[in-house]
Specification:
The chain is mainly beta and 238 residues long. It contains 2 helices and 16 strands. Helix content is 11%, strand content 41%.
Length: 238
């Protein structure tokens, strides 16, 4: 009886610890060559130096379970107690910031350039990446252009409106190459134009995040994709 009670307590403690863990990965999209490589991520409790990676996701960072907002800063703020008033006081006015819902346990912090910001020349967006909503094998698409985009992605049909996002179910059921044929319709046009026709590799263990971007000076958008494969915890940052 005592042994069973002890095991139950251990199970409850482990579940509570798991539910209190919050994590994020960072990605700097369309970063200029002169962009910063690191900044400090402040969650109201602690500041940690983070990588602003461009060609893939950053390591996994732990975030305070109580965090309600995040800010990217050029330096760690002065030490403070944990009251909301003091936490807010140490963040410079105008710093790139974003709120985070209490229900989000794992998320992407998408960073983009913002030369007008005098505190740190970036802006940030929190994207829910909880496994309940975004499962291994699925694809998270962001259309950051004014074009309508659609086509065939493996066994799936893609149709995404301008300035929107969607989750596409796994394009294949196993580890293999699959065919991709995607077109776009420019604003004011009716006829689709080719965007991408090739083969991609599907890994059912990994999630994929894809951005449709409009390069400066070009009428043709481009697609940039990043896999998010989670192995264990060795790369996780405290």
């Amino acid at each position: 009886m005592r042994a069973a009670l002890f095991l139950l307590i251990l199970s409850l403690v482990a579940t509570a610890a798991e539910n209190s863990t919050r994590t994020c990965r960072i990605l700097f999209i369309a970063a200029p060559e002169s962009a910063l490589k690191t900044l400090f991520l402040f969650d109201g409790r602690k500041a940690q130096e983070v990588e602003l990676t461009r060609m893939g996701f950053s390591p996994i960072y732990k975030i305070s379970p109580e965090a309600v907002s995040l800010a990217l800063l050029p330096a760690a703020p002065p030490a403070s107690n944990t009251t909301a008033t003091v936490a807010a006081a140490v963040v410079p006015a105008g710093a790139p910031a974003a709120g985070i819902a209490a229900s989000i346990r794992d998320f992407y912090l998408i960073v983009s350039s913002d030369a007008a910001n005098k505190v740190a020349p970036v802006k940030i967006q929190v994207v829910d990446a909880d496994a309940e909503h975004f499962k291994p094998g699925q694809m998270l698409w962001f259309n950051l252009t004014q074009n309508k985009v659609g086509g065939i992605v493996g066994t799936r049909k893609l149709a995404i409106n301008p300035n929107s996002r969607l989750i596409l179910d796994a394009p294949s059921s196993r580890l293999e190459e699959y065919h991709v044929n995607i077109q776009f319709v420019a604003p004011g046009k009716e006829r689709p134009e080719p965007l991408c026709e090739t083969n991609w590799l599907h890994d059912p263990r990994s999630r994929s995040v894809l951005f449709i971007l409009q390069p400066p000076g070009s009428n043709i958008p481009r697609i940039q994709g990043f896999p998010d494969f989670r192995d264990a915890d060795p790369e996780m940052k405290n």
